Predict the 3D structure of the following.
Amino acid sequence: MAIFGSGPVGLMAQKAAWINGASRVIAIDPLNYRLEKARKVNNVDTLNPDEVDVVEAIREMTGGRGADVCVDCVGFEPERTIIDKAKALINFEVGSMKVLDMAFKAVRRSGTVTIMGVYGSTYDNFPMHRIFDKGLTIRQGQAPVLNYIDHLIDLVKEEKVVLDDIITHTLPLSEVAHGYEIFDKKEEDCVKVVLKP
Ligand SMILES: NC(=O)c1ccc[n+]([C@@H]2O[C@H](COP(=O)([O-])OP(=O)(O)OC[C@H]3O[C@@H](n4cnc5c(N)ncnc54)[C@H](O)[C@@H]3O)[C@@H](O)[C@H]2O)c1
């Protein structure tokens, strides 16, 4: 399973992948401190898209086949080049679907792409041909939390999942603005902030 993005959502998706029987979990993120966190807390393989061709690397790691499942935990605000930004401007698009595009390329034929990251715009050049040709299944949307919460609490109670290992900052409520700032700007190796009233 290949999981794009190693923020709080990606780290949780990595945990869910192991719990649900994945045989190998590959985490992708341009921030090395987040990949380090992913290796430490979730024992995953990691790829940095600024250092390797992620699609090629995933193909190589899966015997040329591609990942069974690709999960987009980035959404429409990935790190973008000036060219990405210019293309978005010309096409009247908000952000970019470049991560989703990578997921469609890196998944195996008849595989599944799950979209957890948020998208809120239309996109030109949507790769319908690739989705059709590979016979892909796409799952996406806001997490239906009420549907799963009892099961998830049971997983914590039974110690099948650890949650607090992704927390990097515990702050008083009076420092909420600072907490948001370091999370937004990815400063101080921030991954997950918990506020204590
Ligand atoms: N579906 C839902 O119910 C739900 C719930 C909560 C959050 N979300 C969404 O999930 C997404 C992730 O949330 P988060 O809190 O983990 O955010 P985050 O910003 O902390 O994490 C996103 C990660 O993606 C990485 N990234 C950027 N460009 C990349 C690329 N090209 N390839 C791989 N990784 C790349 C960033 O470095 C960052 O670590 C957001 O879009 C958020 O809105 C969805």
Q: What stands out?
A: The first strand starts at residue 2 and ends at 4.
